[in-house]
Amino acid sequence: MESNHKNLLFSVLPDEDVLNQCIHCGLCLTTCPTYSLTQFERSSPRGRIKLINAAAKGEIEIGDTFAYEMNFCLDCQACETACPAGVKYGSMVEAARVIVQDSKLNSILRRIIRKITMKIVISKRLLKIASRILYFYQNSGVQKVLHRSRIINLIFPKLSEIDDLSPKVSKKFSSELIPEITLTENKVKHKAAIHLGCFMDVMFANINKDTIDVLSLCGCEIQNPIEQVCCGSLPGHNGDYESARKLAKKNIDAFERLDYEFLIVNSSGCGAFMKEYAYLLRDDPSYSEKAKVFSSKIKDILEFVNNELGEINFNKLHDKITYHDACHHVHTQKIINEPRNILKAIPDLDVNEMNESTWCCGSAGIYNIVHYDDSMKILERKMDNIKKTGASIVLAANHGCLAQLQYGADKFHVAVEVIHPVSLIKKALQKTTE
After folding, report:
1. Among 65, 128, 333, 341, which residue's beta carbon has the most beta carbons within 10 A?
2. Can you tell me the distance from the alpha carbon of 359 to that of 32, in angstroms, rounded to the nearest whole number?
3. pLDDT tens readout for residues 89-99
4. 3-class SS at 44?
């Protein structure tokens, strides 16, 4: 088993020159949420890189400690932003997760949650069926009865709290509300396509609809192919590269037939992963070139709006807001100034910068489920920083962050509304048309 693990690790790891980039300077330590929790070297980026290198060389056993540390990492990639040597840490830890994803090195809970989640996410049909069931559970009174009776905690400790982490399912999914083509009432300036996502489609349909409205108000003709699927980030970040590649190919095929300038994405994790399709499919002779073209057209909704600021006239908003930098915005896509430029352009908006705005909220895919206690410690730190701003609204541009911060507002009694920046943008734009 050990030999098989080592061989597999060699096959999925980046090139040796990438592995040896780390100079062990320690600048990543102060940016790492898990190191801040434990103060263990092995729970830091440079510590995990040492583990990966040692495991690949056969110097240490690929066992429980190795598996735990690869999964304990949030993959927030704050260390990449801090690193003076340009180490691509994310590609290392995601590759290392490949060998532990289905093995006994993973906890039973993680394996069960991962298998169920991945099967549902990669299938549009299963996701919609599961979402309909969850909608009934959330709105029929069953959820309230189970929570009040505490029966739910007899199944698994803290299950009621983990159950509350799930966002509310939308009454109607955005794929049912948004047509294949949306024409603007204004002069057509751009031809855009939109990726509706998986969780964004069934749990944040209002945000997808707001995105369409903003694009339309900015003069976009928008195309929405029904064949599009999940971006693949959840399986990809959890070591299931095979499923991630299959989903990537389906999306490339779905959008390839369209004529568009850019493909708009409104969830930072999805956008970051789709921009990396070229790397994901770099060795595929049929898709490597197609992937490069596809990735080059990906544009976050905030990137788009920022580029259009010279053409947009916002009306006044008097909200007091703060902004949370989603990890896959600030660390992966380097989208930092664009949202702030937009907020500055809205007259009378009271913007309050948050301390540690780039610190992870603790959501990280299924991290807040399988590492609930650690996730809550990270979230409490974030909510404390939000509370100190005195803002009544916090903006977050990732579906995982939105759900986590809303849960945090309730759990830690912080009086703040959690919304996506595009919804605030729509509010400002709509007033100009009234």
Report:
1. 333
2. 9
3. 888 888 888 77
4. coil
